[in-house]
Structures are given as structure tokens and as C-alpha cells.
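ok new one. same drill as before - C-alpha cells go in, u give me an amino acid for every spot. 85 of them this time. try not to just spam alanines like last time pls lmao
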């Protein structure tokens, strides 16, 4: 997949992840897209390495969304900082 393809795929995955995890994000649209791209790469890598699916299988999209949600939740926790601060 080309770089532009990963960006578009990450955009779609980031939007889906954002819709599935409601709430305020410390970052904006660009951060959501970057987390979508990173989540797509992370979820895809983990799924293929574990042997759960091959490249091009539809379940890859699900793993990309799961990876993006994990990164989005971690980003929210880190960016929010300690409670009461």
C-alpha cells in the first residue's frame, strides 16, 4: 500500500475509532488521523504476526480500529496528566 493509501486508511480508521470512543480528546483532527495511521500499522502488525489473518483479509480493518482505539485511549490518559493537576 502506498503512503497516500495508508494516510487515507488511517483517516477512515481514526474516524471510526473516534466514533466508537466518545468524549473529549486533548488533540484535534490531525492527532486523531495520526493515531488512526499508527493504530492501523500496530493492529495490522500484531494481527499478521500472531497469524490471526493474512494481509488483505477484512479482519485487518477490525484490528486496525482496535489498535487505534487503544492508542486513542492511551493518548487521552497521557495527555490528561495526573488527576487534580
Amino acid at each position: 500500500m502506498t503512503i497516500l493509501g495508508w494516510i487515507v486508511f488511517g483517516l477512515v480508521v481514526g474516524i471510526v475509532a473516534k466514533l466508537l470512543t466518545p468524549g473529549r480528546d486533548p488533540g484535534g483532527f490531525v492527532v486523531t488521523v495520526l493515531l488512526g495511521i499508527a493504530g492501523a500499522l500496530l493492529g495490522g502488525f500484531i494481527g499478521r504476526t500472531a497469524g490471526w489473518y493474512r494481509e488483505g483479509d477484512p479482519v485487518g480493518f477490525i484490528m486496525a480500529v482496535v489498535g487505534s482505539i487503544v492508542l486513542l485511549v492511551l493518548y487521552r490518559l497521557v495527555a490528561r496528566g495526573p488527576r487534580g493537576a
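The chain has one domain: 3-78. and btw The chain has a mean pLDDT of 77.
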